[in-house]
Specification:
Length: 175
């Protein structure tokens, strides 16, 4: 079975290999393309997070395509750059709390002007007057498009790792 899979994978790679290039050369080119995209995306993520942490939500719009789609947890999809910014502004951190987001890129694959980023995040809220805060761990996928040489978010989805809260127990009936 493994031999059949190896032969199938080699045939598929060969079919995608430009004429005159070896499979190894093609693979190296794909890896270089993904590495370049990852470097650019990680730099953009650092800017995005800095604006987000500082509460500069209006500044985040420039990182999205005009018709971007955001798929936040427990809400309908939000379509369009302006709507995404408005949605983010509608949920500021609670008063007296400072927010911090940490993104950890696990993988980036790229092909021409399209890239897919997968990673994890930690979103924390800390009381500005001191005390105990909260941290939410989760995962995300971001679909990027390169537009006029700039990587922009076309689609994104994320959710936290916490299990769903069970519904409250029904009140006991007196019989």
């Amino acid at each position: 079975m493994r031999a059949l899979l190896a032969v199938t994978a080699a045939a598929a790679l060969a079919a995608c290999t430009p004429q005159g290039q070896s499979a190894e050369t093609t693979q190296a080119g794909m890896e270089a393309e993904a590495a370049a995209a990852r470097t650019a995306i990680e730099a953009i993520n650092a800017e995005w997070v800095a604006h987000f942490d500082a509460g500069h939500i209006d500044s985040l719009g420039k990182y999205y395509t005009e018709n971007a789609v955001s798929m936040p947890p427990a809400k309908p999809a939000v379509i369009g750059r302006a709507a995404i910014v408005a949605d983010m502004k509608s949920e500021p951190p609670p008063p007296g709390m400072t927010q911090k987001l940490v993104l950890n890129v696990a993988n980036v694959v790229a092909s021409g002007p399209i890239a897919l980023e997968r990673g994890t995040y930690i979103y924390s809220l800390t009381p500005t007057a001191g005390g105990v805060g909260i941290a939410i761990n989760g995962k995300y996928l971001t679909h990027w498009h390169q537009v006029d040489g700039q990587w922009l978010i076309a689609e994104q989805i994320w959710n936290d790792d916490a299990p769903m809260t069970p519904p409250p127990a029904e009140p006991k009936r007196k019989t």
